Amino acid sequence: MNKIFLIISREYFTRVKKKSFLITTILVPLIIIGFYVAIFAISIKGSDDVQQIAVIDEAHIFNGKTDTTNPKLQFTLIENETEKSFLTKYKNLGYQSFLYIPKVIDSVAKNKFTLHSPSSVSLTTMSDVEDLINNTIRKNQLIANGIDPKEFDKKSNSVTLDNAIETKEGQKKSFAGVAYAVSFGCGFLIYMMMMIYGTQVMRGVTEEKTNRIAEVMVSSVKPFQMMMGKIVGIGAVGLTQFAIWIVLILGVQMIVPLIFPQFMEQLQHANTASSEDLSFAATAFEGMSNLPLAKIIFLFLFYFLGGYLTYASIFAAVGSVVSEDQQEAQQLVFPVIMPIILGFVIMTKAVNEPNSSLAIFGSLFPLTSPIVMMGRITYDVPLWQMGLSMLLLIGCFLFFTWVTGKIYRTGILMYGKKPSWKEMIKWAFRKTN
Amino acid sequence: MNILELDSLKKYFATQKAVDDISFNIKQGSIFGLLGPNGAGKTTLLRMITGIFYPDSGSIQFNGQPFHPEKNNIDIGYMPEERGLYKKMKIGEQALYLARLKGMSKNDAMDSIKKWFIKFEMESWWNKKVEDLSKGMSQKLQFVTTVLHNPKLIILDEPFSGLDPVNANLIKDEIFNLAKNGATIIFSTHRMEQVEEICDHIVLVNKGKKILDGSVSQVKQDFKENIYKLGANVLAEQLMTYIFEVVKYEPNQLLLKLQHDTTTNDLLKYFINQNISINSFNEVLPSLNDIFIKLVEDTKATRQFQNIES
Lengths: 433, 310
What we know:
heterodimer, A: alpha/beta, D-Maltodextrin-Binding Protein, domain 2, 2 domains, four-stranded mixed β-sheet, 6 strands, 66% helix, B: alpha/beta, Rossmann fold, Alpha-Beta Plaits, six-stranded mixed β-sheet, four-stranded antiparallel β-sheet, 10 helices
């Protein structure tokens, strides 16, 4: 017992003491956040150029006026040209694209118009142009039926829907977006951690084997102790990383009100505040506080550990059978990574349809359950499914450590040819060594 | 007293009888040579003695008790042929780690490391990494990590490969020292001149079987071919006799092989009677190298793959 503790602490401290550990622990979340901020910024900002769009309006739906709310689109009505004749000219006249509306249009059925352009037009431009045409046709219809469009807008209403869930503690507001984000985030985090730390275990084992330290080690400790020491030590590194992140998040929450007191004040009055950003932040906060956080954290840790331990033992066995050749490792790793990726794919489905049969299967099957269950945790998972999934995961972990331990103890001392899957299975189920 | 008794050990792999019914004993405090050509089963045998492999059948007695890897591995120091250390780990920490895995307390381990590092002039290495060391230096470090925990049984697989003569002598002296202080040393090598110099007792294995077992001097006696070296000026026509045959002729030196029923005195009398003055006369014992080659060459030296039904 003392020896396995020594191994765990060596595996743990050699990794935690490295500068790269601190850097990745702090940088990786910053990069991920920065990445999303950048995507968000780009998607709402779009391009700065004003697009010049020519319109040949043979049906005269615009009646000489093109109303658009988008300042980046500039429509110009063209007279005395046909679709064919203008097709060769519009580029030279400085238009990025031109819209052709034929003479006869059906006011009820779907119409199909064409936007000509030299290269493909962005989705937002397409939908803006569509909106413009739809709004214009609707307005024309209203006027034709004797309704003032302004009066119509006043009288039509818009509805926002709140989802109330009945719980033992009383009624709670549900925030679908927040629950979705938390589910997806947890699943993604487990997926990433299993990949990163699993491959770290594998590389560590291969290193020990190719360095030939393995032979020195197994004359002091049992191969199983070596394997478990490495897996637990590296797992502890992962937990340390989580702990640092939690401390950082809490730290940010403590520090932000001190630096920006007016921001928090506004946040508290967010319900009355009209600013859209603030009410979004408030929704996020309220949504978070309405989720069963303790349960989520417990399940997250349970599934992280269960999934990590299962996969790490498989990765360790793979690491023990390969030699220097990295290509060999790639071939063997592929079937191991497949179920992890499959789990991730099912998880992205499960956050949308948490009670679909695919989601239920994925959250029970122990090779995908650590990731898929995260997609379901913010929704109410039936108790029997939760219990069965946990039992299966524990069983799977025990089975795999038993099997891979045997592959590991043979593989770590074998050099030369890479064994086939058949041979490895034979090692795994052999009674003695 | 025997520190190690092996009794009909067997270990078969899928295509090889790696160790096929080998028995021998090793006396406490002796330096024991385990010899054999490549692929003879030496490493497999050593791995069974260090508890890395379990034998298929047969028994190992350690210090008079049945061998128990978990209990006995603190009494064993093993230096494998392929050296292995963590390349990125600091040398001092690495030595401490390996010593503590052998069950030493932190303080004992530190004392022992300091003693050995001073003895081998390695004090300045403490904060260096293994990857900074030359091959010979890391060899020295590997030797130190093998003996740090004062093992009763030290197993050295080719300990001198890659060492310059100065460092090889340093290690050789340490081996004698350790044996003098009661440790038993198993020494595995192909280098026969080292075996002759160092070992008390040898076992030769080939193709998984033991083919020779005895003390170095005994083995040499057993394999001697009654060859004598005579320093004298002899003419070729003076060698016409039945009592010996000439193995090698040089003007002032002869190698002679005695016939079975003659003695050395008969031989000397023969020359004295011819009034030939003798400058030197001694028996030529075969070198271990000759014995090794003779024994191994009789069989197919390279192992053939075979299918084992077990």
